[in-house]
Amino acid sequence: MKTSDFYYDLPKELIAQTPLEPRDSSRLLVLGRESGEIEHKHFYDIIDFLNPGDLLVCNDSRVLPARIFGIKDKTGARVEFLLLKQISGNRWETLCKPGKKAREGASFTFGDGLLRATVAEVKDDGNRIVDFDCDESFFAVLDKIGQMPLPPYITEELKNKERYQTVYSHELGSAAAPTAGLHFTDELMDRIREKGINIAYVTLHVGLGTFRPVKVDDVTNHKMHSEHYEIPAETARLINETRKNGKRVIAVGTTSCRTLESVASLYGEIRACEGFTDIFIYPGYKFKVLDGLITNFHLPESTLIMLVSAFAGYDNIMNAYKTAVDEKYRFFSFGDAMFIS
Prior knowledge:
Elements: E1 27-31, E2 38-42, E3 55-59, E4 61-63, E5 67-72, E6 78-88, E7 91-97, E8 107-110, E9 115-122, E10 128-133, H1 138-145, E11 171-174, H2 186-194, E12 198-204, E13 227-231, H3 233-244, E14 249-252, H4 254-267, E15 273-277, E16 292-296, H5 303-312, H6 314-326, E17 337-340
Parallel strand pairs: 1-17, 3-12, 3-14, 4-11, 14-16
Antiparallel strand pairs: 1-2, 5-6, 5-8, 6-7, 7-10, 8-9, 9-10, 12-13, 13-15, 16-17
């Protein structure tokens, strides 16, 4: 199976640069897994495709405003820091641009002195281990001076930082949004519950590796990045109860999907747990938990289009993507959605 098998031609103007208002006004392509049949709806119509007793599993991770700009002491050079992973306390692994300005021992100030930093180590891969220092909570300072780490294909400025968060985001720690959830409003969530559909939450902190391209020709040689997940006891109970009752477990987003399938693959069941996953799902994978998936439209040749191809069938997905292009759907993080059932 070749990476090039998952290429599709996407006109640049179909890459969504800004989110729609309201959130649930985006379009929804509904795809039947077995039939391959396609319907064109709006996201607020999702409730019509959900049945009482079904369970939506959402990722409640919250995006860090992880992009900050520091001024180098002595020289005044401006350097961009992108927080990748908390090592301990205020020590973080970061990506710095330009890297040559952030050598070991270099010190910086941010936000007119609200935050200070020293580069403790330069790793072999070029990432920096950085020690930050501030007078108040690090995350409170970050909320004041940080910018959202939008994907590189979004070039327009995001005016409202909350539009890159789901309405149910709670657990701070992602470097990118679990974008399938961006379409939900509080009102839509209430209507879903009123219909008798349950909602449960997992946490998977999305890493920047989600944007890392597949650079190998043979899909099976690709090495996935690792991300931290957690499944609470109540979520595990609801999933197992739903399956026992013969109802559907529907993942909101590929991150929720990867969390559930990782745990089922590791333990042979869904249980309350936490850990790290680098599961790579591509055609041929046998799904253990999922009955449905709500997702956005993904980049050509990405691991995510491979995942949805595994779930819905390669031919069905490639045809759905061609149809979406022809129908001028909006693509990627701020784009339209797909429901695979």
